[in-house]
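Example 3.2
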Amino acid sequence: MRKESFEFLQNLLAAPSPSGYEQPAQRIFRDYLKPFCQVTTDVMGNVCGLISGKGKDLPRVMLVGHSDEIGFQVKYIDENGFIFFGAIGGVDPHLTPGKRVNVHGRNGVVPGVIGKKPIHLMEAKDRETVIKLDAQYIDVGADDKKEALQLVRVGDPVTFAVGLEKLHGDRVTSRGFDDKAGSFVVAEVLRQVAASGKKPAIDLYGVSSVQEEVGLRGGTTSAYSINPDLGICVEVDFCTDQPDVEKKHNGEVGLGKGPILPRGANINPALFDLLTDTAVRENIAVQFTAIPKATGTDANVMQISRGGVATALVKIPLRYMHTPVEVLSLTDLDNAVNLIVATLYRIKDKQVFIPE
């Protein structure tokens, strides 16, 4: 991965973006796109880059990855200054006690920790019980409620206090790869298309959407506004190459073995075939999974927007999803970008995606 792209990924992941509070990350995305495409932001906070193609009445192609991450929101502050919170998105209460967090207040970041009773003070039965999220609390070091309220307000978003870190080889870990990895791929596709100097035979819209984790909301509104003929959603997917995951659930998916191309009702067969054939032509390794129902991604709402959209999914293999230590391969990210770029230049006629 080129140095500038890695720095963009690093900055995107560092920016807090729990659902409904995505704008710090969206500003990073927007600034990255401005030098090479038209950029707009809608009332929801979705950011869209447009590269117009060569010709008239061209197919409208929408790429989308969501910028929002899981997190927390301040709900209540008790008399001793401890902060109680609710989950934004799917947060596992097993993993939160003892973690460092950042509360994003009006005056900046307030560091804190999610407290945990010492094991020495716990009854044996309590050691085997998961503490419900509404019983967990954040300690920012305040002496009392009055002091805490000078730092944070009810409604402030909270994120895990970790960023991008390199592991061995091309592996990296961070919170928020779900789905800033998708937003990153969308941005890099737009950059490569612009840098090529060769206009495609499509009008290309690249969207970093919002509020996916709480109901696919930004994907719904942006698809309605753009009204695409074709859509490719870039998401993450569960790796099954770690010891505690059953391959029967998600198929055989390995880190570093290429982007994933799912099949199922949410996927247009002709667009799937085009992506698959392009992978063979470009010698890009890909993996396949089956999704025999609607997917829980922006591809789902994009497909059923207005009169319907020919949709596909390109997914990035990810370990430890919805934890602060998600792990992926930078090579998989690069290959997803290369696959989508090569596919876009092969799209000429939207009619071929209508089933016969």
